[in-house]
Structures
1.
Amino acid sequence: MKDSDSTEGRAKEASQHPTPMLDELEGGPWPSFVTGLKRLRDAKGEQYAPMMNDLLGQLEHSYEKKLGFWKGGTVSVFGYGGGIIPRFSEVAEQFPESKEFHTLRVMPPPGYHYTTDVLRKLADIWERHGSGLIAFHGQSGDIMFQGCSTEATQHAFDELNELGFDLGGAGPALRTAMSCVGQARCEQSCFNEAKAHRRIINAFLDEMHRPSLPYKFKFKFSGCGNDCVNAIHRADFAVIGTWRDDIKINQEKVKEHVAKVGRKYTIDTVVSMCPTRAISLHDDNTMEIDNASCVRCMHCINVMTKALSPGDDKGVSIMIGGKRALKVGDLMGTMVIPFMKLETEEDFEKLEEFAETCIEFFADNALEHERIGETIDRIGLPAFLEAVGVEPDPNMVNHPRTSCYVRTDDFDDEAAKWFERKARDAGMTVAGD
Amino acid sequence: MNAPSEKPRVADEIGVPDHIQYMHPVLKKNLGNWDWHDRPRPGVLHHVSKSGDEIWTVRAGTQRQMDVFTIRKLCDIGDKYAEGHVRFTTRSNIEFMVSEEAKVEPLIEALGEAGFPVGGTGASISMISHTQGWLHCDIPGTDASGVVKSMMDMLHEEFINERMPNRLRITTSCCQINCGGQGDIAINVQYTKPPKINHDLVANVCERPAVVARCPVAAIRPAMVDGKPSLEVDEKKCVCCGACYPPCPPMQINGEESTKIAVWVGGKHSNARSKPTFHKLAVANLPNNPPHWPEVADVVRRIVTAYKENAKHWERMGEWIDRIGWTKFFELTDLAFTKHHLDTWTGARKTMNMSAHIHF
């Protein structure tokens, strides 16, 4: 915010908490959250102003003591077991007006699209019932309506719900999902991210609103390998767009690109950076791509946005088991479904069925407070694949096992299954079909 | 208000709302039909549809934790200078979509006047994805909003320009759970002391078997302390991760001096070129020093500068370090390499150099 918005220098009201450390965060070119908090504190006649004065007091106290002073508890709305993050102050004697400062996690539309009209309505609701402070968006993917008394929580939710919004996930439950801007504005998108997002989450809402899973379960949807919503790192179930035919090349645009940036620069930044050495630049400045070697990493398409684009035979990869450190250490999602089409209603049904199978597997087999990636680590990928009905595929590994500690007396049977699958994929009839 | 006789309203379990109703009409019309894009200037994206339709997107930084007045100001700008439709990025930048190029400059000017920096596109440093901190979290070691404000003030020029080798994504997390996520640079709380236990409260507040089960190194066991059922920590085993603190608040992991900041480098979400990677430790034990965290800012500035001056175009932080080697990274950033950089967790051996490849 610019200086004219700063509250510095205004006459301080008698009851106003001094905030010398927070005041330091009002200068500088980046928009200041402190200036925003002060605007709420100074909003004459608004119900939240006293709450925000004490909130600023408690936050300044945290800056002084270098400690947080919130504790959890139990707050919910009628019919729901999750979605509210309860916060009770541990220093309420000093800061009574913000003694309850709960957050409502509210699911945004996929791709985070809003009209200014609906944003104003959301702000108005939060001005009536909450603190006037909203985060777009939290790391969970939710709109975070931060700062609500226990009593006002139900009223705020009722109005948000009437406007067409619903609570997101919290606790051991299906969590709010995220999807990239995707099809709405990106030529690299390989599936209808928003449709998959809504379809999946809305099919399993009961698991979100009435938490009963061993621990959290997150879906994220990215339209291509650029993974703009960080699905592989952060989602238990990551859906990533891809394609299986050839990258599309517009040779005239390739020539234009080379003419503009130079041949050496094109070789340095496109040809040499291909992770599987699949690209050649011909002497006439046309481009050749060895599509059998291409891993759909997106790099060349990112650089040459006009000349290159994903193929037409699009679909998704599904990676299972991403999470951060707690408890066994970081895990990325690993490839479980290398490719499935996601275009027809039947395709979406298949995705929903597979998601349901995974959630059921998780509910039945995970230990308390265990993420599905940890469960898979504990039991081994083969056992997980068998449980969810997926056949092993070389795309699931960096390389085959290096450890000889495995019992292989049924290897021939397993190999026979592989050759039968290959034969079926090739359109042949297999004995016993 | 909530009189007992009053019947509670039954929620309409709508789930994820329909996005189409909020979408800019040009986006709606060209759903799945986009052809290519370019970036006319930092902070502006220009997408062209196969139908010939065009849309310009102006991206601006926000403080994420927004007061209703800021939200209304952004809406005013959206109504007056854009076309009433906005969206947010995963890093809390706001985007205004306009269907005429002539609207771009006045929109940028209006955002500038209102104090919202325009940028965050392409090879820039975008807004720091971050967590709640002292403002709202129940287990925070620091205040992410404050750290982010301090860092973005310092890095502002790199937000409004596109002059990095590739995009540089920073995250901040207030505890080792790391809700801020992986980043080219991650600024995360790192605890340095075992929890301090208030034995008077444990029996009443904590589900003890669950707390014992939560410890990743089996350092917690049930114990009777002063005649009360409580928990004790084997401090030789404890790795000070803080995992016991959320299920058992009387096991305070934070301390005014013992809560420190570590900076990590080389995390990457994208599959472009190299596979996604986790961030790796650059330096630990930096002081948690509000309101400006100058020691953290100094380290971040050194890492950003070394990357900016030495990486090749399109190399992300981790890819650059892979090429030049960690020896060079620690030299260029003037940071120490210690025994604590050698991983000791499950799978650690796979992080060691199992070759004769070395950098000088």
Note: Chain A touches chain B through 134 residues (CB under 8 Å).
2.
Amino acid sequence: MRTILYLIRKEFIQIFRNKFISKAIFAVPIVQMLILVPAVTFELKNIKIAIIDKDKTPESRGLINKLGGSTFFKLSFSPFSEDQANDLLHRNKCSVILQIPSGFGKDIGNGKQGKLLAAIDAVNASSAEISWAYLNGVIGDYNTDLVKQNITTSPLISSPRIEITNRYWYNELLNYKYYMLPGILVILVTAIGFLLAGLNMVREKEIGTIEQINVTPVKKYHFIIAKMVPFLLIGLTDLALGLVIGKIAFNIPFEGSIFLMFLGSTIFLIAVLGMALFISTFSGTQQQYMFVAFFCMIIFILMSGIFTPYESMPMWAQDFNLINPVAYLMRINRMVILKGSTIHDISKELYSLIVIAIGFTTLAVRRYRKTA
Amino acid sequence: MALLNRGCRERLFLPPVKNNHMIKVIESSGIAKSFGSTMALDDISFFVNESEIFGFIGPDGAGKTTLFRIITTLLLPDKGNMKVLGMDATSDYKQLRKNIGYMPGRFSLYQDLSVEENLNFYATVFGTTVEENYELIANIYSHIEPFKKRLAGKLSGGMKQKLALSCALIHKPRLLVLDEPTTGVDAVSRSEFWDMLSKLRQYNISIIVSTPYMDEAIRCDRVALIQNGKILSIDTPQKIRAGFSRKLFTVKSVEKYKLIKTLRKNPEVLTSYPFGDSIHVTLFNDSSDNSLFEYLVREGINDAVIQETEAGIEDRFLELMEKGVTA
């Protein structure tokens, strides 16, 4: 025990003696939170729309006003021909074209169906879908207005309608920052766990100090634990720092228990540190380690469900996520912060993380050789 | 029981010798190790007596570091048996590590820890304290103690070496393994270093040390000449020197380059190696040094001075290499 404590002390002395790392440890969470949380958003505002109005009736102008008045769309152009509009789309000047054919107003006036044609730039599929949904919504509103007008003018004609009222739970205003912040916290903790400890270990190999350690009676698990503990503590400190920034800068609602979130992150960090140290036993140089660790980290983060819903991934990807610690913490953080989930709600995630943590730490200890 | 056994063995098999020099701290038999197709060590057998300073002399790439890594349990041999302090280096490595002090060829202490922190660290890791064994290192550590707050990476070469030795000694090992401790250290520090090693004898610490410097061999009790993974000869430095089989001459001239070229053209000359400002020459016929002088004059070197000299270890080593003799 005395040996472990002394080894840990040594790591801390070295970390805080390194002028760059000791500052970066605290600068990284601040920068990451302040930049990434507001920057990474799927909210679409001011979608540039070009409208070809071939109708030019009060009805078509009403529709155009409705679109221009919403915060989603920005009426950028009013081309006269389809060719002109396509050219605008091609040159990225607009991302949606709406064509109002002549006779639109007349058809509506006659109680017939009015027809519209929309073309949407789908290079980014998800923003195309969102644009389409917004467009549909605005046109639907306009449709309802028309129906209401008809009802008032001729009360005899009425049609049965279903009206839905919805409410968004856990994030009522669909504030994207609330969704992203717990995820960014996960990325923060992942980076600390994955990069620092592994690099530290490989550095000892590179400069040869491990040679001197290996001839001592220091036990393998002593050494591995001493490499984990300092970075575990640093990771949790950064998490706390990130949460404070989230509260102050973005006023994020914190529904669940902070303790639960730290519990999840602690187990997660042990898992990630175990993986990192396991990889480090294969690497002879910091360059080799960096390459492999970065590759793993990117895969884990992109597959974790930070941007895309976990459930919509193909089956094999969901299977892969069984060993992806980032995916578990992503769910834990979001559930605890936004939903206020309790330990029972996240027990499956916690158990899975414990299994991964034990598995990889054991592998790291076993793979670490004191003899060649 | 073990003690009794050893006592019996000594009485039965070994001739009665007055001191404890017959206890062997290292017994190596038939050690071989290869890396891919390179044979790093080939059939290495030797023993080291207790309290002995045993030197391995050989050029870079001879296999010294590989051998030392096997002795210190860091590397497993492909073949052979390595007994260190009576324990098997392969199976008893845990026990062995507590009793060995290893100083690798490359400075391997933490450069970002201070002198004091390094020393405390290694003491703790071996489950002891600096105070407990301070006596052992006092003589060495006192040189660097004034700089104990300085980071190890900021020390000079000689001071680094003293710190490394202190750290290797702090747990009072029974065997000290020093891999090229004097490489890259100035001549004065080298000499000081060997004085320190000699003083360690009183603590019953056996030392094996490797060096590429032939002149250091004389400071060892016994040396092994090693080349291409094979031991060429093992003996006391004096006997190794005495093993030189011919008369040795030093030849000096102002035009050194021309001299050696001319010497190598002469069929009478067996070997000619540059040694500092002179050339060491052996002849096929030991008595033909006069004719050599005449030959040089004929070739246009008039200022040549030829003297017979006593062979050093290096001469013997070169001779052994030339003959390809194995021990």
Note: Residues 232 and 324 of chain B are 8 Å apart (CA to CA).
